[in-house]
Amino acid sequence: MHLYQSERLYFLIDEKKDGNQAASPGRELCSYQSKGGNGVEGFNYICPKSKQEALMMLAELGKKARIVAGCTNILPNIQAKKLTAGVLIDISRLDELKSIEAKEIVFLGSLVTVAQIAESSSINQAGGVLWQASQQFADPLVRNRATIGGNLANASPASDGAVPLLALNAEVVIESTRGTRNVSLPEFFVGPGKTTLADDELITGIAFPNASNWQGAFIKFGLRRSMAVSLASIGVVVDLDGRRIKDARIALGALAPTPMRALQTEHFLKQKDVDGDVIEKAAEIISAEVQPISDVRASKEYRSYLAGVLFKRALEKIIG
Prior knowledge:
The chain has about 325 residues and is α+β, with helices and mostly antiparallel strands. The protein contains 12 helices and 19 strands. The chain is globular, with a radius of gyration of 21 Å.
């Protein structure tokens, strides 16, 4: 028997004799207590009716709670026994977190799926590098389930969502019952699989300046065409005046403990006229700037080399 309560929420999960689950005192509330045999032993499952209810649940449950929506990351972790118990708070029904607004500031609700981004003409115009990344994300089945908020919360160094958003100077909108805060992506990621999110906090949106006047490219390098974790990826956006780079933002994935910005390379490129020598020098800088590791998929030396290659391909894609 499990009891959760708050000023606005009070429910009891109990077992009936026939093995079904009941929620009392009678209000409609999605709830389930696992009894085993289904791969999620030790977990309870609840569905808040609003963002505020979700925040109240997080405040009450703390470390016991796990937010779920698309479940493309958490279910494999449960099956692999990386997570073995807790309360799954399913926010997938919260329409208030599913909006896309492309104005002077572009806003994505945290429950916007990768498929929605891939189908959005407004994102293609206002944040083309993110739109390009969405086309290469996993496969159609995963794109239809995976949410942009979940992709960031997972904090993979190879995140296909984080790289273009870093290049777009995005911020994460984080809420709790204590208030709201905006955190830049470089500050949001603190290590592999780790973020600044507190136990009672929820990502409710992502915001970035409209980049319709910038040109961008996203390139992902993996061992196969789809469903591949990146060996390296790059997102580049530039503000061009002819062939002169007025400003540049470059982000990289799978080349450091967290998705990273290539700040030294960006500084080098500013106010440069693009030619072969500039591109080669910038590629050398970016190869030295990354901090890759060696693993079963590639050596750190190869990944450093890839950083320069992908940079050149991205810039050539933009400039032609």
